[in-house]
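sorry for the late reply, my laptop died twice this morning and i had to redo everyting from scratch. anyway the thing you sent over, i finally got around to it. pasting the sequence first so we're on the same page, its 86 residues, then the predicted structure underneath. double check i copied it right bc i was rushing
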Amino acid sequence: MRGFVKTAAVGALVAPLVLGGAGLASASSGGDGPAYEKFQKAANANGGSCTMTVSGFTPDGKAYFRTVTRQAGPTGASESSTGSRS
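ok and here's the structure:
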């Protein structure tokens, strides 16, 4: 029973990471011109993590770059991001 509760708790923490990655991906692509996207996701009984890197150009020709790392575990969650645009 304890294993199930732990797995359910980790699933509840990791779900926003996965959904957040999908939202970032859909916002960055789609006719903006050349673009780059990379995603790394991991989850286990102790927590989960997701790292996303995107770069490209906006419709008005400005360049952008963003990398986001999100982590969640039994003691809490964190997010770190870096970005730039011209």
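Residues 8 and 57 are 39 Å apart (CA to CA).
thats about all i looked at so far, will dig more tmrw
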